[in-house]
Amino acid sequence: MLHAASLQSLPGIRHAFFTRQGGVSGGVYESLNGGVGSRDAAAHVAENRARMAKALGVEPDSFLSAYQIHSPDVATVDRAFAPDARPRADALVTRVPGIAVGVSTADCGPILFADADARVVGAAHAGWRGALTGVIEATIAAMEKLGADRNNIVAATGPMIRQANYEVGPEFVERFTVHNTANGRFFAPSAKNGHAMFDLAGYIRSRLDSTGIARVEDIGRCTYADDVTFYSYRRSVHRNESDYGRHINAIALVD
Questions:
Q1: Are the C-beta atoms of 231 and 110 separated by less than 8 Å?
Q2: DSSP tag of 83
Q3: Helix 135-145 / helix 200-210 crossing angle, nearest 10 deg
Q4: What letter would DSSP give residue 160?
Q5: Which of 17, 164, 183, 253 is the most exposed place for a label (fewest CB within 10 A)?
Q6: Does the predicted TM-score (pTM) go above 0.85?
Q7: What is the DSSP string of 90-114?
């Protein structure tokens, strides 16, 4: 697992950006696949998630993630829920100790949030669509409803696909620049005519900065470029693989 120094320094908070290493899955899912929605054996996914829960000091039934739909929607968690009752959302927030809230990723940007003073944490899945439509701002607003103060919130972004490996077409660029002409700064020329390289991490950082959060950390790792450490949806497509594993990125309040 990987950690952000800014979150690791907070009292009463445990977090991890889990990698693909340390689990029981095989094949394209080797080895710590936490994707409930993948076609991996359910028993393997359950064991992998139990190992992640143990690493954060919570019970397996309290290691929670949503049914992600690439939206700005946030669910507030006040109790554990069964895998088949996962809320349809792309961020979870809680103030309940002993519950880990997490998001699954395989190129999109995971963001973990914590206000150690108010004892409120959150996790957001920021793919390009969710980031563009406001999942970051919605997560912070949901945390504030639980008593957090954005002046005290620490945010950390984890492994995601980086600009050198994120080629997009002209319609993608247009979608962003129509929304805000200043978004053009997140695109660099591509070797392929009419295409561009998108800086997802930079875009996420700009949205975080615009919220007024003072402490933001990016651990700076690329999922696509490192197949030993990370899963990558885009890499799996380029390799014509049948499916891909999912990382879990989670945070919890502990006593």
A1: no
A2: G
A3: 40
A4: B
A5: 164
A6: yes
A7: SEEEE--TT-EEEEEESSSEEEEEE
